[in-house]
Amino acid sequence: MSTSASFGANAVIVVFGASGDLAKKKTFPALFGLYREGQLPSTVKIIGYARSKIEDADFKKRISDNFKLRDEEKDKPKIEEFLKLCSYHQGAYDTAEGYEELEKIIGEHEKKVGTESPERLFYLALPPSVFTEVAKNLKKYVYAENGTTRIIVEKPFGHDLDSSRELQKDLAPLFTEEELYRIDHYLGKEMVKNLLVLRFGNELLSGTWNKNHIKSIQISFKEAFGTEGRGGYFDSIGIVRDVMQNHLLQVLTLLTMERPVSFDPEAIRDEKVKVLKAFSPLNTDDILIGQYTKSEDGKKPGYLDDETVKGDSKCVTYAALGLGINNERWEGVPIVMRAGKALDESKVEIRIQFKPVAKGMFEEIQRNELVIRVQPNEAIYMKINSKIPGISTETSLTDLDLTYKSRYSKDFWIPEAYEALIRDCFLGNHSNFVRDDELDVSWKLFTPLLNFIESDKAPVPEGYAYGSKGPKGLRAFLNKHGYVFADEGTYQWPLTTPNVKGKM
């Protein structure tokens, strides 16, 4: 098979599972966003494939209802242009007929445009139960024998270590690691993609990014909503498997890995695997788990009130985990990863708290802290100590602040996560996709913890009210892991972000 650095003007993109929510809400809107910004050629062919019988016009309305417009007047003609590139094909996932017809459609297009070296991208917006079946049929009937084939596989990549290895064993004989793109949309988020430059492009941070200067690391994921009728699905997954083993662990590897020799995708992924192998086994005694109950005013239901959830479910909707890395850079630095549903706000952020300055001239002074807000309202700010202006000699904790909304014009295009990752795949860039050995090491780390949490030996999750900050033991848990809360009376928030709360 020949390979290319990027796809050309006559590439074909096929989205499997085109009638599903993921394709409707994420995949096709991302493809439109790329087209709107001139990142997809006007000659690309996009095919939706699914089992459902849907008329072409209905399919196009279904996907276009979710398109995001930056400038309504300019973007509406773009929608019409984009939809002309799209078509829908109904077919089964487990029989040859649909794939043979798909190959015919693609072949006719490639013949029409005179493509000598086919370039095909297949996006599997499908449940894992059909991954293998679809992959086998793709390889047999629609593979670009004399060109380039790329396959995007959506998470979850298995349910635990054994199932992940089984999936990999099924896919490995069919497609090379170069052809497979395991997508974790958190790796496409702007602030996550910025971590390499932030860490290694600033001597100010690079020189202090170690156990000699950093006291604690914290990554938090908060959702202000519960399962909202989807508890039956969530009940078999839980918050650890849903966001921690994948999304938050990916962020943590980028935060803690060594400097790659280059921006080459394999150089970056090599360093991620190296640091993962240095993680201590997760300690089942060093966890805080919870399950949300009714809101204090009784207006929001508890997890067990969801009719799709078993009445005696011990599913974890909140977890805080202590982690450690056994290498020269991070030995002894406490790391906390925490995530929960039905909390007081929706926010994802990273907090790097530095060690206190030496005593002497300062009896009491706050610690420096670097905060990276991944969402919403992307921002990077550093808490620093400064003298209060005027005749006072008192110090105050304030910010060096880079809030994207304030710094960049609203006309400045920041790609959505799926837009960024589909573009990377289109260009053959693996940097922000999960490699097979990386996936294996991450499941090795988390599977024992998951087995414990889902066993009879696990403690009953602590109840916390819908809309609260989480389990009552959270503050003590963070303190135990080296995080020191600032005296709120001394913290002056910057004027550019008046609506952002500083509380944990």
TrEMBL record:
Gene3D superfamilies: Dihydrodipicolinate Reductase, domain 2, NAD(P)-binding Rossmann-like Domain. The keyword NADP applies. Keywords: Carbohydrate metabolism, Glucose metabolism, NADP, Oxidoreductase. It is an enzyme of class 1 (oxidoreductase). InterPro entries: G6P_DH (IPR001282), G6P_DH_AS (IPR019796), G6P_DH_C (IPR022675), G6P_DH_NAD-bd (IPR022674), NAD(P)-bd_dom_sf (IPR036291). The keyword Ribonucleoprotein does not apply. Residues 14-194 form the Glucose-6-phosphate dehydrogenase NAD-binding domain. Pathway: Carbohydrate degradation; pentose phosphate pathway; D-ribulose 5-phosphate from D-glucose 6-phosphate (oxidative stage): step 1/3. Residues 196-484 form the Glucose-6-phosphate dehydrogenase C-terminal domain. It catalyses: D-glucose 6-phosphate + NADP(+) = 6-phospho-D-glucono-1,5-lactone + NADPH + H(+). Belongs to the glucose-6-phosphate dehydrogenase family. NCBIfam families: zwf. This is Glucose-6-phosphate 1-dehydrogenase. It comes from [Candida] anglica.
